Amino acid sequence: MTLEEALEFVESILQAKTDKQLTAPEKEILKAAWDNETYSTVADRLYMSVGHIKDLASQLWKRLSDLLDEKVTKNKFRRLLLEQSNNYHIEDPKGNILIVDALVENLHFLNDLLTKQGYKVRRVTNGTMALKTVRNHPPDIILLDIKMPDIDGYQVCSTLKADEETSDIPIIFISALNEIFDKVKAFQVGGVDYITKPFQPEEVIARIQTHLTLQQQKYELRQQIEKHQQTAEILYQSRALLTSLLNSSRDGIAALQTVRDLVTGEIVDFRYLLVNPVFAKLLGKKREELTSKSGQKKLLNRLAPGLLEKFVQVVETGEPLEQELGWQTDRGKQCYDLIAVKLGDGFSITVREVRD
């Protein structure tokens, strides 16, 4: 637990049980207790007398002792708070829920109900505190009362939905049966559901579980989309790099895949998967012509007698092929070194001109 979390924890208890907030001097006193500083340090920081700070501290420790049902002092504050925090901590909670309700009785009821179900619960009694709490530690879901003393539930919901950091948090509105509740407005400002008082435990739990499940599914879908986008980007970059390397190579490079007989499974031909410009030029063809169709048997055998059968052996045995070829080009007959290497259910070819 950090100092900020400790202050928020104390404020949430004060809000739930007394509907009061910590004053600035009280926060400084708690900070001093947390960091083991003296009251003189606090007095100097606030330009107050040490006596006044001690009086404030004495009142604060008494209030906290009453709230926590245990004697709280400056020296014991940090240890006690860590123990109290651990009591609120649930191993692997089903979800982190923030309850915002002006009535302390409702907070106690929902807290007991949801804690027993395995949820981690935080409670505040007004809209201002709710906004602060959500921004500091976003919950998985919010139960939000419509009627509150400072900012009503509609305004709180609108504010959270307008913030990119909190806009995805599901908000379930709370309203009493005898209150005027504008359901259309509740959904327009971003609410996902509503429950009415007096609470029906089964209904509360069912609605929370439903929306937490939907939220988890949305999160998993978003993760899958992001993963797919990353994979697509990596693939695009890999293809771009491969294309750049192939196009800049002075050697003719191609990759071919087998065409097998559907009955016997024997290799009867090959088709091009990839051809670089040099290789296409050697064959006197456009790359699109080569990669758009199979039927390379005649062309391969025309380059050198029995070449097709040698490529079949490369695929079947995995043994590479090295051979010299005399190739008729627009510059006359040229001599080339050909290397074929098994590649999946096919092979790759590299053709290099012998200049000597």
Please tally the helical runs, counting DSSP H or I stretches of 4 or more residues: 14
| Biggest sheet features | 5 strands, parallel
Q: Choose one word for the global shape.
A: elongated
Which regions contain 5 or more consecutive residues with pLDDT less than 50? Answer: 87-91
Q: Rg to the nearest angstrom?
A: 37 Å
Strand order in the sheet with the most strands:
2-1-3-4-5
How is the secondary structure organized here?
Blueprint (H helix, E strand, L loop, with lengths): L2 H16 L5 H11 L4 H8 L3 H19 L8 H12 L7 E5 L3 H13 L3 E5 L2 H10 L4 E5 L7 H10 L8 E6 L6 H6 L4 E5 L3 H48 L3 E9 L6 E9 L1 H7 L3 H5 L5 H7 L3 H11 L3 E9 L2 E11 L3 E8 L3
Parallel strand pairs: 1-2, 1-3, 3-4, 4-5
Antiparallel strand pairs: 6-7, 6-10, 8-9, 9-10
Helix pairs in contact: 2-3, 3-4, 7-8
Looking at this protein, list some descriptive labels:
elongated; alpha/beta; 356 residues; 5-stranded antiparallel sheet; 5-stranded parallel sheet
How does this model look, in words?
The structure is a single chain. The chain is α/β, with parallel strands linked by helices and 356 residues long. Helices cover 51% and strands 20% of the residues. It contains 14 helices and 10 strands. The chain has helices at residues 3-18, 24-34, 39-46, 50-68, 77-88, 104-116, 127-136, 153-162, 183-188, 201-248, 277-283, 287-291, 297-303, 307-317, and strands spanning 96-100, 120-124, 141-145, 171-176, 193-197, 252-260, 267-275, 321-329, 332-342, 346-353. Strand 4 (171-176), helix 9 (183-188) and strand 5 (193-197) form a beta-alpha-beta unit. The longest helix has 48 residues, at 201-248. The chain is elongated, with a radius of gyration of 37 Å.
